[in-house]
Amino acid sequence: MTRIRRGYIARRRRTKIRLFASSFRGSRSRLIRTITQQKIKALVSAHRDRNRQKRDFRRLWIARLNAVIRGNAVSYRYSIFIHDLYKRQLLLNRKILAQIAISNKNCLYMISNKTIKIK
Question: Which residue segment(s) compose the domain that 12 sits in?
Answer without folding.
Answer: 8-117
